[in-house]
Amino acid sequence: MKHLLTLKDLTQAQILAIIDQAIAIKQDYAPVADALKGKSVVTLFEKPSLRTRVSFDIGINKLGGHAVYLDQQNGALGQRESVQDFAMNLSRWCDAIVARVFDHNTLIELREHATVPVVNSLCDLYHPCQALADFMTLKEHCGDLSQVKLGYVGDGNNVTHSLMFAAAKLGADMVVVCPPGHFPDGNMVVEAKAIAAEHGGTLVLSTDTAALEGCDALYADTWISMGDDTPISAIKAKFQPYQINSALMAQSGAKYVLHCQPAHREVEITSQVMDGPGSVILDQAENRMHAQNAVLLQLLTQ
Ligand code: CP
Ligand code: NVA
């Protein structure tokens, strides 16, 4: 593994190795406390962040490395200087670039011109670090990931795409339930279905929440992603049947609920479910750090 742009590029063995290492270091950081000693990682954000920014910064510190945070003080990436020059300059100082960008093509350009690993920390198409933390969390609570059935409910987006590819590679079953017109990208669905079939998993799409029956866990994300200025009032009625609430949890039979956060309480998820006994949402947030650290260890020390 040289970069992490999408989980599509990883094998099942590589994904499982990251999850297993993340679970191991979560128990004990002592063996890896100096693993990134003398190494620096630039974390670059074109969009806001709480979890990603903090979990990378503190996580890199736990591995003995140094994180350098870059925000948009100089304007959007590619404006003050080309993405190519940006990547080539950064590569002379740092050992890896973690980037949250508007356009996936910016990551492809960074990867092309950087001589150090590039990690996608969210773009318009994917959120691979999130999906790794999510399947780590499912492993902790449900065990064997090839036996897990995950139900994603809401807007088909970057998080959905990464969850679909993670589930497919791991041979898990996944159901994606969205309002009409809000499905994940059609080509990615075709691709993920083929990968799932290869690995003994399934991917089912529906507009009907009845399709969620038998899921071990339900997953919510915001109905409007960063960079989309659609007002909530324009879509709320259409999305309301897709809210994760106690009725939907009971109807599906799911024991657990996940949300990548930031969450909008009483919008895509109710507080009753978010703060309820089946919520593993804060485990997901914590696990972002461990999963990303496992990625950095694979990229920088293997
Ligand atoms: N889940 C997630 O990526 O959160 P932030 O946007 O706060 O980083
Ligand atoms: N789909 C959301 C995820 C936030 C972590 C977004 O892109 O805004």
Task: Give your account of this protein's structure.
Residues 147-298 form the Aspartate/ornithine carbamoyltransferase Asp/Orn-binding domain. The chain has eleven helices and nine strands. The protein is of the alpha/beta class. A five-stranded parallel beta sheet has the order 7-6-5-8-9. The longest helix has 21 residues, at 281-301. It is globular, with a radius of gyration of 19 Å. Phosphoric acid mono(formamide)ester is lined by residues 49-52, 122, 130, 260-262.
Task: Give a short synopsis of this structure.
The chain is α/β, with parallel strands linked by helices. Helices cover 43% and strands 14% of the residues.
Which key features would you list for this structure?
11 helices, alpha/beta, 302 residues, 5-stranded parallel sheet, single chain, Ornithine carbamoyltransferase, 4-stranded parallel sheet, binds phosphoric acid mono(formamide)ester, binds norvaline
Q: Report on the biggest sheet.
A: 5 strands, parallel
Whole-number average pLDDT? Answer: 97
According to DSSP, the number of beta strands is 9
Strand order of the largest sheet: 7-6-5-8-9
Bound ligands, each once: phosphoric acid mono(formamide)ester, norvaline
The secondary-structure class comes to alpha/beta
Summed up, the helix count is 11
Shape: globular
Parts with pLDDT < 50 across at least 5 consecutive residues = none
End-to-end Cα distance:
9 Å
Helix content: 40-55%
Family: Belongs to the aspartate/ornithine carbamoyltransferase superfamily.
Domain Aspartate/ornithine carbamoyltransferase Asp/Orn-binding: 147-298
Keywords: Transferase
InterPro entries: Asp/Orn_carbamoyltranf_P-bd (IPR006132), Asp/Orn_carbamoylTrfase (IPR006130), Asp/Orn_carbamoylTrfase_sf (IPR036901), Asp_carbamoyltransf_Asp/Orn-bd (IPR006131), Orn/put_carbamltrans (IPR002292)
